[in-house]
Amino acid sequence: MTGLRAYAIAYLVFLYAPIALLPLFAFNDADIIAFPLSGATTRWFAELTQSASLLNAARNSLIIAATTAVLSTVLGVCAARAASMADWPLKRPMMGLIMLPLVLPEIIVAVSLLVLVVQVFGLGLSNTTIIAAHTLICMPFSIAVLNGAFQNLDPALEEAALDLGETRLSAFRLVILPLVMPGIVSSLLIAFTISLDEFIIAFFLSGANPTMPVYIWGLLRFPGQLPVVMALGTILVALSIVLLIIAEIMRRRGLKRAGLKDRGGFL
Amino acid sequence: MTLISLAGVNKHFGDYHALRDIDLEIREGEFFSLLGPSGCGKTTLLRLIAGFEAPDIGTLHIDGRDMAGVGPNLRPTNMVFQSYAIFPHLTVAENVGFGLRRAQMDKPDRARAVDEALEMVGLAGYGIRAANALSGGQRQRVALARALILKPKVLLLDEPLSALDKKIREQMQVELMKLQREVGITFILVTHDQEEALVMSDRIAVMFEGGIGQLNDPETLYRRPASKRVAGFIGMMNFLNGRVTATGPEIAVEVAGLGRYRVPAEQAPGGVEEGPVTIGIRPETLSLLFEGERTDRMEVAGRVDEVVYYGDMTYYDVAVAGIDKPLTLSMKNRIGRPVLDVGSPTRVAWDERSLVLLGR
Q1: Distances (CA, A) of B94 to A155, A163, A170, B9, B131
Q2: Which of A80, A264, B118, B347 is the most exposed place for a label (fewest CB within 10 A)?
Q3: What is the number of CB-based contacts under 8 A between chain A and chain B?
Q4: By percentage, how much of chain A surpasses pLDDT 90?
Q5: A82-103: pLDDT as tens digits
Q6: Interval A120-124 mean pLDDT
Q7: Angle at Cα A124 formed by Cα A122 and Cα A127, nearest 5°?
Q8: A162, A166, A259 ranked by CB distance to B88: nearest
Q9: Domain B2-223, architecture per CATH
Q10: Plot region of A108 (φ>0 → left; ψ -120 to 50 → alpha; else → beta)
């Protein structure tokens, strides 16, 4: 029993110790990242807000992540809905093809997209190109999450709504949509997170307007900027925890409303 | 008055022939059952009437209107689903009032209609509850109220009682019958439970492999099954081998182990030809003769092979010389009437009215 407990503790340390270092050095009053610590300060956070290029990168990332989340979820809902319907011709190969980007190496996707956008279409690089690429890689995750939500639905629920006078569209809005809402929230969140910290594609396609990960990578070349990166990382971790808690609250509320048993989740 | 008529209806799912040449007329205000084993097409037929499936060939008319191309939302039918399909994110009242969204009704009228519907199914005051906090029986009542609130011409019930406990199921059978008489709406029930169909229906269509095997009222179906298949599916039946030696208004038949008889042609509801024939005998048309008991019916000696005691009834299997399988017969238990032991010698009384001749 004690052996198991020690293993569990080691496990948690392995998972979270690196992340715990972030706030430690973010509040550390020294230019170099090293022990021993030398007093608390908030100046790194203050410095963050002074940097126009950082704020620009943050704004880019948020715009890209939010748009990607919405696009990939909308497309995911369509695909998951189609997958939950009775067999149609080529359903299996089609679904397989849609899920394929999940296992494609990102570097390959990035290079081919760069070639496609710049060489074939002759377009400039912008946030739009990154959004398109991120939607491509996030969609399989959205579909995987949403598939679960749609497959759990009793098909008789939609038929009951039709039987009671609703059209296919209104039945979807009144019955299916509220019941798959927890899945939609999960999908939005996952796509948002993936897009937010995606580096390779953003690096290839961002042009002069970097996203946050690309900007952080740029900062790393200047050791003096490291504490600022730590402060930025701390904010991102805090943001992730808040998002996770919101997602879990939404999920539990959705389950309760649908009258389903709680079978795990994030928290 | 015919309310629903199907003519030449066929339905395939891929290679599977789900419905074969269905011709069927269902009358206004009757309690009609589609009875059959699983996979016989009864649910497909119901879904076809509801509008969830379309026939490959053939026509469906409801109330004189051709239903080709008419969606389930525009048909004068409402359905109680096997899973009940109660909307889990809505309250009981919102579920029941769901179909009224499209009705031109103001709020108080709608609330009143919901209350009335809930009262009709015995759930008055349940409106504000969450739908997923209900028991199986209550969910079924909500499904009924939700379907009936729209005053459909036809109520379709897809195995509505199969998910309930035996006690509640029997209680709901009676309630459904009462409800049907009260509202006067045509009910079409799909079930695989022959007892349920016999208890509730005005008429029953017995289905096998996508076709209708026999369509009659419950008593005719039970007493005069037209085929061995129907006879075997509905109630218990002894099957004996025999031979028809003459046909006509009276049929001459030789029954293995029991002798030669002449029976009126109505005892061969499916028609017979000269030659080998299967003879059906219901357990309750036979009786056991206890010691010293006399009968003016015919009797044959045998030996008790098996005893199954049900409380109000006892079922005996009696081995009789010349019949390959023991005869099953049922006796009502009465005060002073013993329950025989396995192995006891006994006599079985019967007469030629017990025989049902089942052709090929």
Answers
A1: 20, 16, 16, 37, 9
A2: A264
A3: 65
A4: 17
A5: 888 877 778 888 888 888 888 8
A6: 78
A7: 135
A8: A259
A9: 3-Layer(aba) Sandwich (3.40)
A10: alpha
For chain B, where do the domains classified as CATH 3.40.50.300 start and end? 2-223
Place of tokens 């040449």: B21
Which chain B residues contact residue A160 at CB under 8 A?
79, 81, 85, 87, 146
Q: Could you count the other beta carbons within 10 Å of the beta carbon of residue B289? A: 16
CATH of domain B281-351: 2.40.50.140
Query: Can you point out the beta strands (E) in chain A?
Result: none
Tokens of A29: 């009053």
Contact, B154 vs B185, CB < 8 A? Answer: yes
Contact list, A156 vs chain B (CB under 8 Å): 81-83, 85
Query: Do residues B158 and B78 touch, judged by C-beta distance below 8 A?
Result: no
Task: Convert B121-152 to b/e letters by CB count within 10 Å (16 or more is b).
Answer: bebeebbeeebbebeebbbbbbbbbbbbbbeb
Is there a contact between B79 and A257 if contact means CB atoms under 8 Å apart? no
Please spell the DSSP secondary structure of B240-267, one letter per residue.
EEEEEEE-SSEEEEEETTTEEEEEEGGG
Name the pTM for this structure.
0.81
Instruction: Tell me how close the Cα of A78 comes to any Cα of chain B, in angstroms.
Output: 22
Task: Supply the pLDDT for residue A243.
Answer: 79
Integer Cα distance of B141 and B119 in angstroms = 10
The full set of domains in chain A, from first to last, is: 63-226 (1.10.3720.10)
Burial class (CB in 10 A: 0-12, 13-18, 19+), B224: middle
- Please tell me what DSSP assigns to residue A102: G
pLDDT at A46 over 90: no
| Start-end of H helices in A85-173 | 91-99, 106-114, 127-151, 155-163, 168-171
Asked if the interface predicted TM-score (ipTM) of this complex is over 0.95, the answer is no
